[in-house]
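Quick one:
INPUT:
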């Protein structure tokens, strides 16, 4: 059965096309810097926003109209599987991502919940085999159910911790069964409200213990996966432990977990942390920690995770610039962790949203390639730091300098001369690269 009956296959028609249901820039087979767009971008649909999200917000119930609305329970879960593959096929999306609770409803007991999962996982596997679609990552939702009110890996209640571990174990088995490329930890409730009732040291130690158990279990079952942590500074807890890339890397190093993890970075989470997305990607990249991207955009006028589809070409250009400079996303991808607005409630809007996001990323990729090929930014940066390639600067970089040798140099040095940073000229060059695509 077709769930999106009125919509056919979305194809690349080029920039002259005025068909809203066509790509103007995303041309999967087009080669950019030696790889196809499809290989660079590795787009994924997020199960939770696209098939489960209903547009509800704290002030009102859902608005979304979906073809599976009349169904409930496992029937609805099965319908969403069918819809997922139809949607991916129509948009040419190679990957999808899900939380365990997105794909199957919870039962009365953990046994029943796991049995529900088994049915859906078998169905997903069949479809993956016949369509060639792949799982970019899966994860366990350890934040929605009331049992997780005090956290999962950082809960004060050992029974809840054990439940979370059981859920994680099952999710790793699912990941292996479906050949997931990555496994994501986003700690929705891994944080705290107030220090007044919190043992922070124990909570962090326990979180590290849970990660260690996951590494051990993946090894035990032969699940060759890249573990990813997704930083976010707030929402739902006030203080999330994985605040941003730098904080998460420090945590991983403290517990000697850094070789087992990379980061799944999200644009809107960067905004909430007071960073740009490109800052987060650069921090990850220079620490060898760039894993995957959750592509969306926030609203600078609002203080929460609005998860809008990414349409800002300036942002997608700078994002893809960082990705290309870092050598690409490897087994990561560009996952649309984004939702249509509450007012965009028709199924067709799901297509417009993904087309807009995919075209914006394609444009960003092409603009970033122009920046790299023309050495537009590199030339400025190289010139700006040239004093570290010769003389005293080369001594500093080589580790040959001491405070005494630098003092000697400074004492006899002529007046110091700084040079302009030329930021406005650079921004103009950046604009040229973006407009010139
Ligand atoms: C929430 C997160 C979440 C993760 C997966 O803000 O972005 O959607 O990506 O749990
Ligand atoms: Ni996310
Ligand atoms: Ni988010």
């Amino acid at each position: 059965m077709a769930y999106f009956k009125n919509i056919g296959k979305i194809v690349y028609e080029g920039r002259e096309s005025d068909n809203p249901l066509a790509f103007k820039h995303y041309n999967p087979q087009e080669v950019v810097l030696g790889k196809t767009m499809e290989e660079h971008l590795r787009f994924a649909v997020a199960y939770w926003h696209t098939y489960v999200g209903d547009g509800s917000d704290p002030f009102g119930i859902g608005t979304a109209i979906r073809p599976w609305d009349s169904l409930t329970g496992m029937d609805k879960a099965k319908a969403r599987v069918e819809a997922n593959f139809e949607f991916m096929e129509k948009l040419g999306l190679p990957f999808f991502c899900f939380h365990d609770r997105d794909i199957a409803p919870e039962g009365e007991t953990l046994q029943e919940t796991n049995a529900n999962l088994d049915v859906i996982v078998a169905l997903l596997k069949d479809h993956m085999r016949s369509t060639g679609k792949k799982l970019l990552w899966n994860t366990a939702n350890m934040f929605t159910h009331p049992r997780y009110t005090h956290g999962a890996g950082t809960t004060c209640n050992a029974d809840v911790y054990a439940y979370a571990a059981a859920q994680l174990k099952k999710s790793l088995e699912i990941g292996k069964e479906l050949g997931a490329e990555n496994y994501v930890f986003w700690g929705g409730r891994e944080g705290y409200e107030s220090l007044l009732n919190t043992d922070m040291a124990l909570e962090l130690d326990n979180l590290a213990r849970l990660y260690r158990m996951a590494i051990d279990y993946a090894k035990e079952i032969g699940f060759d996966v890249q573990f990813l942590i997704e930083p976010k500074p707030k929402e739902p807890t006030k203080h999330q432990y994985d605040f941003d890339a730098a904080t998460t890397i420090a945590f991983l190093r403290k517990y000697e977990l850094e070789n087992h993890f990379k980061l799944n970075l999200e644009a809107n989470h960067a905004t909430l942390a007071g960073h740009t997305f490109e800052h987060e990607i650069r921090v990850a990249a220079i620490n060898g920690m760039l894993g995957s991207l959750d592509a969306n955009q926030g609203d600078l006028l609002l203080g929460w995770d609005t998860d809008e589809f990414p349409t800002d070409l300036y942002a997608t250009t700078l994002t893809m610039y960082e990705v290309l400079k870092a050598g690409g996303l490897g087994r990561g991808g560009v996952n649309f962790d984004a939702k249509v607005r509450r007012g965009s409630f028709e199924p067709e809007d799901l297509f417009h949203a993904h087309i807009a996001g995919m075209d914006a990323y394609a444009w960003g990729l092409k603009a970033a390639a122009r920046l790299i090929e023309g050495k537009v930014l590199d030339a400025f940066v190289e010139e700006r730091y040239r004093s570290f390639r010769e003389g005293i600067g080369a001594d500093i970089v080589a580790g040959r300098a001491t405070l005494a040798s630098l003092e000697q140099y400074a004492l006899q040095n002529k007046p110091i001369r700084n040079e302009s940073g030329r930021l406005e000229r650079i921004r103009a060059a950046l604009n040229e690269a973006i407009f010139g695509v």
